[in-house]
């Protein structure tokens, strides 16, 4: 009878249905849109949805303007505020924005945020958001 001499485990890939994984992907998509908006201030998101047209469901394309996540304050410094849903993310206690010396530095900040999200550093935020939302149809 064979004897088990070694045992190893491999992590299961995250399921596509995992709410944290879904929120992470959507957040990265929104950060990527902010980079596109930096390159082209007239950038518009294109969304395709199914709608009923003449009694039949057909794809309809909508164009949606993107708002920048940054503003210039009275001192001329750029402040980038990052929100998840309607809630601003605090990177430092009491500070809901990232101060950037110039607009040229924004792509670096956005790329750093994308890497942090990909590395799972914001998964607690995404997990807590799914717990705080009530399930659809439940009170």
Description:
It is a single chain. The chain is of the alpha+beta class and 139 residues long. Helices cover 32% and strands 24% of the residues. It has helices spanning 19-39, 106-118, 123-132, and strands spanning 44-53, 56-65, 70-72, 78-80, 83-84, 87-88, 98-100. The chain has a 3-stranded antiparallel sheet with strand order 3-4-7, with no helix packed on it. Helix 1 packs across helix 3. The longest helix has 21 residues, at 19-39. It is globular and about 55 Å long. It starts with 18 loop residues before the first helix and ends in a 7-residue tail after the last helix.
Rg of Cα set: 21 Å
Query: What is the helix/strand order?
Result: HEEEEEEEHH
**Strand tally:** 7
- Let me know the average pLDDT: 80
Name a few traits of the molecule.
single chain, 139 residues, alpha+beta, three-stranded antiparallel sheet, two-stranded antiparallel ribbon, 3 helices, 7 strands, 32% helix, 24% strand, disordered C terminus
